[in-house]
Amino acid sequence: AFQDQNRVLDMDKHHAGALTARGMARAALGDSQWALSDLDQACALAPRSALAFYQRGRARYQQDMHDEALADFARAIELDSSFAPAYVARGDTYAAMGEHWQAVADYGQAIELQPKNAAVYYARGVARAAMREHRRAIEDYEQALELDPAMAVALASRGAAYEKIGEYSQAIEDLDRAIALEPTLAMAYYNRGLAYG
After folding, report:
1. Which of 18, 61, 73 is nearest to 41 (CA)?
2. Residues 47, 81, 134, CA angle at the centre, nearest 5°?
3. Positive or negative, the Cα torsion across 57, 82, 117, 136?
4. Sign of CA dihedral 122, 27, 105, 113
5. In angstroms, how far apart are the furthest CA atoms of the chain?
6. Is the pTM of this model over 0.85?
């Protein structure tokens, strides 16, 4: 993919789509600095491209440039309000900044657009748990598990939430199931130890 985008750019150095795709490829390879260079150019050449701003936001997020990432995700949403990944990415950024209530709002928007995405329910549950809304977090983990019953991390997180509200037998049951699904999931062992304690 990287080589194909280079060929396109050899023929047309102002091809915003190729710059976006090459920036995505560079970011995936962990080369965030060069990814940002490509994505800066793509955003300048295609200021109406939600994808370009979204991808630049992701690259900025990887560089811990959270405020800049938020601005890019906001621009992507402004350009295409149905672009669910931009809401998820902005939610992830807010969560990383400790602004969990804003993360919950963005995850909620993403869920409205993509109600079958288990990972977003899980992420919203984590944000709610960070705000000590454990019962609401459990509801989100249950939605995630309904969509993906093998999501061990959702089982472990639900178990941790049950432990927080004092429902220890339910916590242990969930944590046992999480460990059976993913025997190397350290958080499941840790939280099971708390539940047994």
Report:
1. 18
2. 125
3. positive
4. negative
5. 65
6. yes
- The DSSP secondary structure of 38-86, one letter per residue, reads HHHHHHHH-TT-HHHHHHHHHHHHHTT-HHHHHHHHHHHHHH-TT-HHH
- Judged against a pLDDT cut of 60, whether residue 6 lies above it is answered with no
Locus of tokens 């958080």: 187
Nearest residue to 133 (alpha-carbon basis) of 167, 93, 101, 166: 101
Q: What is the pLDDT of residues 127-162, one digit of tens each?
A: 999 999 999 999 999 999 999 999 999 999 999 999
Q: In Å, how far are 32, 38, 85, 164 from 141, measured between CA atoms?
A: 32, 38, 20, 15
Task: Report angle CA 49, 52, 56 to the nearest 5 degrees.
Answer: 145
Strand extents, DSSP E, the chain: none
Give the three-class secondary structure for 99.
Answer: coil
The number of residues in the chain equals 197
Paired tokens of 79: 């350009």
Which residues, in sequence order, are CB contacts of 67 under 8 Å at separation 6+?
Answer: none
